[in-house]
Specification:
The structure is a single chain. By secondary structure, the protein is an all-beta fold. It has one helix and 31 strands. The strands form eight sheets. A five-stranded antiparallel β-sheet has the order 9-10-6-12-13, with no helix packed on it. 24% of the residues are buried.
Length: 415
């Protein structure tokens, strides 16, 4: 705790994050004449800009040579120049951060951690040539910090690369995306604030349809107030999720953060992702499949409620009705591959053509899920059994009765 006018001197061996709930000034200085392996240099001091005033690009210049006592450059002792770059995690993409339009090696960056050891951002210390330098983030909406310093034989220098003019006292709020299962009840969106935290502050949110639709997938929210109480750095808001029993693909909607002069939003509008809990059903396309014996095959199909994301193998078992197994039809269990991205797979069952009239016969088909169904969230549909009908077309000739009667007078017996 610092009282007004107080100060604290910290020895810091690596990048760190300094946070305060009141405005403070932060300055960086070298401890003695021996710093960064450069000997006999005077200490330097520079101001460290607050995160709220980071910019996306800096044009700076580093010192070339140290003058001698007479103010000339006769001795021409070169400075060893450095820059410290700090980038918040939400803006960190090493491919977008450049020095003089050149890339920075990713291994130069090290994590900058909060007090709870979570990562706030990333920092790098780089050596710079003498002269003009441009240090930039290629995303104009991003921000980074640049400080510079250098040492020579007896002198040193240091300064910040520059600052923006954003107000520091306005709290910065970030709300995070979240993913829920459809039967969760409520989707909870986590929000964090930094900067000024000892005063209450509120903002509003409104839901916006995406692939998830208000009224069928979630309950719409209009201008809902979200509040950080005094001293509170995290808060949440919730949106009710509608649980149905219809298999669906992953769906999303957005919670729009309404602009507020008392809050700086540092994140995009958070997205709520709803994962279906009903799974994908696989079943027979029809309850009964019929064929003529003379065709030699029975044609049938399996259908799924949604396309599978990964190919899956399903087993179909057979049992006798009044058709005899392996006499009237082939009863070997069938392993059927259901490819990814489709919703129907056709298959055939071999039928025996025997030339013997047998009338219409039937057998049973049963769907049997194999291991891996649970991981793919595949389950049997209601139509998990079916009947195969074999219609015999063989020509049958026979007497239509066992006894026939005629009269002697007629001279014949009708048959």
């Amino acid at each position: 705790t610092l009282n007004a006018g107080g100060f604290m001197d910290l020895l810091i061996a690596d990048f760190c994050l300094i946070q305060s709930n009141r405005p403070i000034g932060v300055f960086q200085f070298s401890r003695s004449f021996q710093t960064d392996n450069v000997l006999i240099s005077d200490p330097f001091m520079l101001s460290v800009p607050p995160c709220e005033q980071y910019r996306d690009s800096y044009a700076v210049a580093t010192a070339p040579f140290e003058p001698d006592i007479a103010g000339t450059f006769v001795g021409r002792v070169a400075y060893v120049n450095y820059t410290n770059i700090a980038v918040p995690a939400e803006y960190f993409d090493v491919s977008l951060i450049t020095v003089n339009n050149g890339p920075i090696i990713a291994s130069e960056f090290r994590p900058i951690r909060r007090a709870d050891n979570s990562i706030w951002g990333y920092g790098a210390q780089l050596m710079l040539d003498a002269g003009a330098q441009v240090i930039s983030h290629q995303d104009p909406n991003a921000g980074l910090s640049v400080t510079l310093y250098g040492f020579s034989n007896q002198m040193s220098w240091g300064c910040t690369g520059g600052t923006g003019l954003s107000p520091v006292a306005i709290p910065r709020v970030q709300c995070n995306d979240t993913t829920v299962v459809e039967n969760v009840g409520n989707a909870i969106v986590q929000c964090e604030r930094s900067g000024l935290v000892d005063e209450s502050v509120s903002f509003t949110i409104t839901t916006v349809d995406g692939t998830a639709m208000a009224g069928t997938d979630y309950t719409a929210v209009t201008a809902q107030t979200v509040t950080f109480a005094s001293g509170q750095s995290t808060t949440t808001f919730s949106v009710s999720i509608i649980n149905d029993f219809i298999p669906e693909q992953v769906e999303r909607f957005t919670t729009s953060l309404i602009p507020n002069p008392n809050v700086i939003f540092t994140s995009n509008n958070p997205v709520v992702t709803i994962e279906d809990d009903d799974g994908i059903t696989v079943e027979f396309s029809d309850p009964v499949y019929s064929t003529f014996e003379s065709t030699g095959v029975l044609r049938a199909a399996l259908v799924s409620s949604l396309p599978l994301s990964t190919a899956y193998q399903i087993r179909i078992r057979f049992s006798s009705g009044n058709a005899t197994r392996n006499v009237d039809f082939t009863s070997t269990p069938l392993r059927l591959r259901f490819p990814a991205g489709v919703t129907r797979v056709n298959f055939t069952v071999p039928i025996t053509v025997d030339g013997v009239f047998e009338g219409t016969e039937s057998f049973n088909l049963r769907l049997d899920l194999t291991p891996g169904a649970e991981a793919l969230r595949v389950r049997e549909g209601d139509q998990n059994t079916a009947v195969g009908r074999i219609i015999d077309q063989a020509l049958r000739v026979q007497f239509n009765q066992t006894t026939y009667t005629g009269s002697e007078q007629s001279g014949f017996v009708p048959v």
